[in-house]
Structures are given as structure tokens and as C-alpha cells.
Q: What sequence folds into this?
């Protein structure tokens, strides 16, 4: 029996909001078209935040409208709060994701709210969803779950408790994010196992970073303990690239190659995925794109996984 | 109980012989000093090949002599044949490694010998060792074990059969090398498990490449099935770097970080290991060095593994 994973492409949101340049709306459409053509079936296409804070995302509603024309595509958006959720639901997204820091220090520094206040915000988002769009899924992304640049170690207990709290607040899924690139495979296995013991099938995606080169090893570790949804970004766009060859987000091309080579079905066609770098490049001239597999090409004799 | 792994540093051999520039002997000594000071206790310091073929290794005997002054260091050298083994034993190495291709096509193209002929060569090397230096260890590195750029897929059966043949020829260890960067974690687990079933404790190191970004994931996979020796290269030097950010060999710094973060003891001190990049850089001005952990630094709150 072939294993199957869902690759959730976050480039159009996480990638594009992390860089200086703003990709024109037409270029975003062309890139999303290419990602969809490659077989990606969940794409985080936008953030619903005030345009004065994040001009790169000013066209969020328009991008969502375009993505909604793709049959079978789950159209996701990030929302930081209730106001963002209202806008995202009005635009018609299928799934909302809301980041909640596992580190109190990061939460206060990043959104000027305590973790408890963020769980309350989430509760309001869930109520809004229940009242106006019950078919929409709500995910909490537990950021800094594996460590925090401010407070250092984030205790496992804090993450498990927060996972329970967001589920109690009504989310459909809670994923774990290695926001700071501090995770290691042993920790990934331990923490996902503990979270699953706490919240069962509501355990969501692994969102890993490649800050210290461990992105794919951490995805493998998560896969080993039953995770089947993985966030990644084409060309490793976004996260926090601070050096040549360093990418923040796990590179979708390399992640898909790893799984397909292992015989794990992703539904993504690698040659088409590599081809999707072209519209990305055209939309962001001069922006560095990462990824080893696109440079090396597929190995001789490579066979993609079959269902 | 803490797990322990042996990191076998191959940079002074595999790294230096793969690049155009020749590092001066004094610089090699300084680099090896720094690697030793960081805690590395097995270093492949040279290739014993004719200087006209590989001028970078013309000072092999002198480099070995220097490395032999370090207490507790296992001084390794690569030898392609009996003649190289004679020279390496005369120089006083502790351990010889001889590459044997699992792919017949690669073997013929690379050393103009069939696999069977290479096993015969190995038998002569073992006899020489038995007669003149019985304390010296002989390792066979089974190259192209995970795939070949010429023939594509290398059947598992070929690798297992070759492992049995080199053990029958008298080697102490047979390691598996992903020469071409084609390995994936599922294959690494399957093949090391099969080889161990065939040759037991003579199963040697995992020599992984990062060609498609899977280097650390493949090392993790090998660790999971009991491998405890890993080849890597400081700064990812060597292998086949064909693009910015692409390294051939697994980067020692990232590999050590992964294991230490997991609580697996390597005996290597990370700050000192990062410091060893300086003599490497001075000895090879302008040569690109890879590695994410050196760029990102150690995470806040990082604690190294203890025995």
C-alpha cells in the first residue's frame, strides 16, 4: 500500500510576504496556475492583513478569487486575527490558518498578545466561521513550537498544553511550526507523538524550516511518526534566508523529490513543479531561488511514486 | 543511555582532491590540527595516487606523518589499488579505504576494472596488510551503492552480493556510498538493513552526498537502522558542487549539529568545529564553503550531547 502525503504550498503567502519586492497580481496568478498544474492541491495564497502593514498582500481577495477557479484546490489564507478572518471568509477561502506562538516571549513580541489572548482570538474566529461559513476549516499553526530566538528552549509541555487549548477553542487542526529553525529530528518525533496523544487526528501539518540544514530530516522524522501534511515553499522562498544557500522554508522541490523517491505519493509532478519556477522567477526578477533538486535534475532511472 | 556516533572527516582527502586548487602542505597541517582540536578522531587525510594524476595529493606521505602525531586520531587514507596501499602502509596509516563500485558501468568507466577485478585487488591489499601491518584496518567503500549516473538504478542484490564478496576478500568493514546523490531515506534503511543481515558488524560507514538536499535525511535514516559511522566534509568541500548552495559531501558542521541537537554524542565541539573553517579558508582562498549551521550559528539555549 502506497503512503500518501499532502504538500501544502505556502510560497504565495509565506514566501511573498517575507521579501521586499511585491509580486504583481498577474504574476501571482500565473505562478499559482503553474503550481496547480504541477499537482499541488493545497496552496496558502495570501495573508489578510492591513495593506499598509504588508503591501505585498494588498491584493489578497483578488488572488483568492483567482485560486477559487481551480477545481479541487484547497485555497488557504493566513489571518492574524478576527478582522483578517472576516475578510478572508468574505473572499471565500476554504481554510484559514492562524499562527499562535508556543513561546510567550515570541507571542508578546510578535503580535503584542499573550498566548491566552491569542487562544481567545481563535475562539472568536471559530465562532465567526461557525455562524457564517461552517464548511471552512480553521487551522492553528503553533509557531516557535521547537524553540524561540527570544526565550530559547520552549518546553514540550507548553506546546502540548497549547495544542489542547486551541482544539478546545474549536480548531479543526493544530500544526507545529519550526519558525526559528531550531528543531531536530528526535524532538520532532517526540513532540508530534505527544501532541497526537493529546489531540489525536486534529494533529496538523509539519511546517519546518531549513535554517540549519535539517529541514528535510525533520520532515522525515515527522513522517515517521505519522504526519501526512507538510508545508513547504517553492524555491525555499520566505522564512528567513540570511546567507547564500540558506533557505528559510523547506524547498518544495526537494521535499517532493524526497517523498516520491521513497515511493510516497505526493500527487505532484516533479518536471512540472520545476517548470513552475519560471513564472515565479519572472514575477520576482533577481530574487534568489533555492533548491538542490532543480539544480541537479532528477536522477537517471527516477520513477515517481504511484498510488 | 546516550547514543554515540563516529564522524569520519573526509575533507582533507575527498574535499581537497575534488577541487582545482592545491592546498599547501603547511595549510593542510593547520587544518588537520584544527579538526583534531574540534574533537574529530577519524580523518581521511590523503589519497595515495600518482602525483601526476592528482597533484593535490602529492604530499600524502608528509600529511600522514603529521596526522600521526595526534594521540587517539585514526589516520585514514584512500588507496585505489595495491600500489597505493604499499605507499600508504609505508607512510604508517592506521586505516585504508578502497572504493569498489557497485555499478559495473561505473567501475569500468572510473577505474577501468570490473567489480570482480576490484575485489581481487582488494584481496591483494588485504594480503599485503596481513603480511606487513596486521594492525591496520581495511575498509571497502561501496560506491554508487544507491544509483549510478551511467546505468541508473543499481539493484539492491548487487550491493548485498558485493558486500559479501569484499568481506570474503578480508576487509574489516564495508560502507555504502551515495556517490551520485541518488539515495533516498527509504532506500538507505532498506539497503543498510539488508547489508547488515548479510555481513553483520562488518557493516561500515554511511557516506552520503547532499546533491539533491537529502544528505542529512539520509544520514538520519542510516542512524535509524543502526549505522554509527558517518563520513562528511567540513564546509561540504568535495563531492560535486555544481551550484550555489549545492554541496556534494554532507557538511560536517550540519551533521554534527543534527546529532548533538538530538542528544547523540559525536565528541565534536561545535564552536571549535566552526573555528576550523578559518584555517580551511586561509588554505583555499576563494573556494566556496557550504553549511547552514555556520551561517545561522547555534540556537539560543543549545546544549551539546553528553556521554
A:
Amino acid at each position: 500500500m502506497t503512503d500518501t502525503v499532502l504538500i501544502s504550498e505556502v510560497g504565495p503567502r509565506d514566501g511573498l510576504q517575507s521579501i521586499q519586492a511585491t509580486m504583481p497580481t498577474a504574476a501571482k496568478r500565473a505562478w499559482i496556475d503553474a503550481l496547480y498544474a504541477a499537482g499541488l492541491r493545497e496552496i496558502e495564497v495570501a495573508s489578510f492583513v492591513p495593506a499598509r502593514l504588508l503591501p505585498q498582500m494588498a491584493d489578497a481577495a483578488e488572488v483568492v478569487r483567482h485560486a477559487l477557479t481551480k477545481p479541487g484546490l484547497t485555497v488557504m489564507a493566513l489571518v492574524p486575527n478576527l478582522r483578517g478572518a472576516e475578510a478572508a471568509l468574505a473572499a471565500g477561502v476554504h481554510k484559514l490558518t492562524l499562527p499562535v506562538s508556543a513561546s510567550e516571549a515570541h507571542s508578546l513580541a510578535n503580535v503584542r498578545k499573550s498566548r491566552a489572548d491569542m487562544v481567545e482570538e481563535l475562539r472568536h474566529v471559530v465562532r465567526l466561521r461557525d455562524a457564517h461559513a461552517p464548511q471552512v476549516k480553521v487551522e492553528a499553526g503553533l509557531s516557535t513550537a521547537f524553540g524561540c530566538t527570544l526565550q530559547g528552549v520552549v518546553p514540550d509541555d507548553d506546546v502540548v498544553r497549547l495544542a489542547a487549548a486551541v482544539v478546545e477553542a474549536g480548531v479543526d487542526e493544530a500544526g507545529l511550526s519550526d519558525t526559528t529553525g531550531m528543531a531536530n529530528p528526535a524532538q520532532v518525533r517526540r513532540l508530534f507523538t505527544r501532541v497526537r496523544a493529546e489531540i489525536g487526528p486534529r494533529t496538523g501539518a509539519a511546517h519546518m524550516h531549513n535554517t540549519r540544514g535539517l529541514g528535510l530530516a525533520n520532515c522525515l522524522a515527522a513522517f515517521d511518526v505519522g504526519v501526512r501534511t507538510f508545508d513547504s515553499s517553492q524555491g525555499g522562498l520566505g522564512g528567513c534566508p540570511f546567507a547564500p544557500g540558506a533557505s528559510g522554508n523547506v524547498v518544495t522541490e526537494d521535499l517532493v523529490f524526497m517523498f516520491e523517491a521513497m515511493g510516497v505519493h505526493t500527487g505532484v509532478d516533479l518536471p512540472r513543479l520545476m517548470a513552475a519556477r519560471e513564472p515565479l522567477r519572472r514575477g520576482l526578477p533577481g530574487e534568489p531561488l533555492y533548491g538542490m533538486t532543480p539544480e541537479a535534475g532528477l536522477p537517471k532511472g527516477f520513477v515517481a511514486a504511484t498510488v
In short: Chain B has one domain: 6-296. The first strand of chain B starts at residue 6 and ends at 9.
